[in-house]
Amino acid sequence: MGPYIAAKHAVIGMTKSAGFDHATDGVRINAVAPGLTETDMTKAWKDDDEKWQQMISGVAMAKAAQPDDIADIVLFLSSDSAKFMTAQVYLVDGGQTAH
């Protein structure tokens, strides 16, 4: 788990650093940090009801994200509506990190 956590924090650090460094160049740099998301990778967990209930019990919304939920924030960050947003990491986790 250590290397995984280190890699996640590296992405956060690079996002903040690059976002700051390139802000005056008109380049916005942000990252999206999704929580539990229903994908082919998590299908085995969902097929095991006990495991799935354990997984979603840590999510405040008591469900996993759908891929479109993640895509929606990426589309928003790519739009002019997010023109003053840079060097940030956006959690899309249904409140999992607040739990």
From TrEMBL:
Q: Which Pfam families match?
A: adh_short_C2 (PF13561)
User: A single Gene Ontology molecular function, please?
Assistant: oxidoreductase activity
| Keyword Protein biosynthesis among record annotations | no
Tree of life domain:
Bacteria
Q: Does the keyword Oxidoreductase apply?
A: yes
Q: Which InterPro entries match?
A: NAD(P)-bd_dom_sf (IPR036291), SDR_fam (IPR002347)
Q: Which UniProt keywords apply?
A: Oxidoreductase
The record's family statement is: Belongs to the short-chain dehydrogenases/reductases (SDR) family.
Xref: PANTHER family: DEHYDROGENASES, SHORT CHAIN, ESTRADIOL 17-BETA-DEHYDROGENASE 8-RELATED
Q: What is this protein called?
A: Uncharacterized protein
